[in-house]
Amino acid sequence: MILLAMKPFLLKLKHKSQLDVDEPASGNGRIVISRKKVNCHDYPLAEKKSKLPIETPSPASDGNGSPIGGIAGSPASGVLLLGGQQNLLSAATSLGEYTMPERNYWQERPSECRKDLESMRNKIKTRYSSIAQRGNYGKQNSPYPNNWRMNGTLIAHLHEHSESVIKLAALKPHGPLFASGSIDGTVRLWDCNKLNGNQTINKSRQVYSANTPIYALAACDGGQSLAVGGKDGSLLIMRIDRNSSKMTLQQALHLNQNEHSDGPVVDMVSYDHTSPNIIIYATLYGAIVAWDTRIQQCAWRLENELRHGVITTICADSTGSWLATGTSGGKHICWDLRFRLAIAEIKHPSDSWIRKVACHPTEPSCLISASKSNNEVSIWNIETNHRQTVLWASPAPPLSNTSMNDPATTCGVLSGVVDNSPFILTGSSDQRIRFWNLCDPKSSALVVPSPKDNLNDITFNYNTRLIDGSHVIEENIISLGNNTDMNALRVSAEENPRSGPDMPSASHQDAIADLLMCKSDKGQIYIASAARDGAIKLWK
Question: Residue 402 gets which letter from DSSP?
């Protein structure tokens, strides 16, 4: 009887002893939370695809496969029970089971912490959905066919420009038409459908003379117009007439004479993926302007501080979320276009001049940047300011700050996705075009050699290593020991000249300034490269 009377007290002692065993540090004034006492909840960020159940006929079913006596289960729940033995309910049982619920005047009011949790869940879920959509954009919409690889076969040699070609621009993404702007003051329109090697004459489709060196070029109005920036501070919007051999001037602005005195345009990008009437251009004095060609007014304006250096290049995210600029002071300034604020400032370790910036084909938060000297191309993470990958095609030690007498600079950058694997094509001042495979660096290759390269004597291979936390893909030139005399080959060619006109060289004779991908109506992929001597070559 005494033990039965002490039962509640003994249970309390037992419970306390278990707590002391589970929480040995509870007596020193600290609260220890073990995994056994915490309820962990997992919230899926992506919606699971529900699979519809397959209806299997039960033994007690009619010819149509529906259970005899109707559907078993609660009519109010809306749940259909399929398969298995169905329990038949009598009418009395059904009427007695389903009664009217009692009227309840209590109103459920969630706590503030539950509201915050739900809000955070929705916010993270939306962010994950956006990142997943942008991350799969390049994989789902890649214009390159499976197993595509640039093999360096010359298709067309175009040499209508008399001076350096500064910029190539496609009228529509992955389309057959592209334009070229040159220091000679002309803008020419090309059609890759007519430059496939079957035509006897490779000639531009349209031409426009701006009477000033062209520094920037971009398509707008859904590929119906071209925006051209000149050295004299002019910004021209030209309408492309498909039935004419000339372009029609639609708008003309003089940026040196406006209220801000912005100076000439240094680079320009189209905004067709979000607003086909908007072009974004950067000026010499640090202005970043979105111009609406429809209403002929400024849509918004950003100011880059001149202490960062002069803007040399610009690129915009395909989703219209952010924009990045590269400067002569070696800085990358990233802007959030939703709030129009500078969100990141990435500084090159050696303050190298940034020659080209481009968006990563699969990573929405990464930026591709080509800097001056050593053929250096870096991939930066905008969120962490970390240099993740470096493409190094120079005899200088990787990531060194000295040029080692190697002023070769990558000016043309083209990225894409093949077989769910991102790649980068680079065109350099050493007259070479390289293919970099970011997932399999050893499969990278030199696709177009320079005229000085004798591939019988040397070969190019690529390996990767980790330096200062960055994955460096390094190009190595290995001598084969054949020692072929190039001068002897050149003399023998001069002694036995071939009849007819000279064939164009299979390599560029000057520095490569820009790269572009175009696709014919038959689905053939071409790579266009422009050089400082005014030549444009088409490869496949």
Answer: S
Identify the pLDDT of residue 167.
95
pLDDT at site 254: 85
The Cα–Cα gap between 134 and 361 comes to: 10
**CA gap 300, 7 in Å, rounded:** 78
Q: Amino acid identity, residue 79?
A: V
- Domain range list for the chain: 150-496+505-539
* DSSP-assigned beta bridge partners for residue 313: 326
Q: Taking the model in full, what pTM does it have?
A: 0.73
Residues in the chain: 540
DSSP 293-359: TTTTEEEEEEE--GGG--EEEEEE-TTSSEEEEEETTSEEEEEETTTTEEEEEEE-TT---EEEEEE
**Which residues have CB under 8 Å from 46's CB, separation 6+?**
128, 129, 132
Distance CA 527, CA 517 (A): 5
Q: What is the DSSP string of 258-271?
A: SSS---SEEEEEE-
Whole-angstrom Cα distance, residue 460 to residue 66?
A: 71
Q: How confident is the model at residue 149 (pLDDT cuts 50, 70, 90)?
A: very high
Q: Is the dihedral of CA 390, 396, 400, 401 positive or negative?
A: negative
Instruction: Give the position of tokens 């994955």.
Output: 471
Render pLDDT for 131-143 as a digit per residue (tens, 0 to 9).
565 555 444 578 9
- E strand or H helix at 381: strand 376-381
Among candidates 427, 414, 487, which has minimal Cα distance to 452? 487
CA–CA gap between residue 61 and residue 71 (Å, rounded): 11
Q: How many CA atoms lie within 13 A of 23 on its CB side?
A: 15
Q: What is the mean pLDDT of residues 92-100?
A: 44
Distance between terminal CA atoms of the chain? 98
**Selecting from 2.130.10.10, 3.40.50.720, 3.30.450.40, 1.20.1250.20, what CATH number does the domain 150-496+505-539 have?**
2.130.10.10
Q: For residue 469, count CB atoms less than 10 angstroms from its CB and return exposed for 0-12, middle for 13-18, buried for 19 or more.
A: exposed
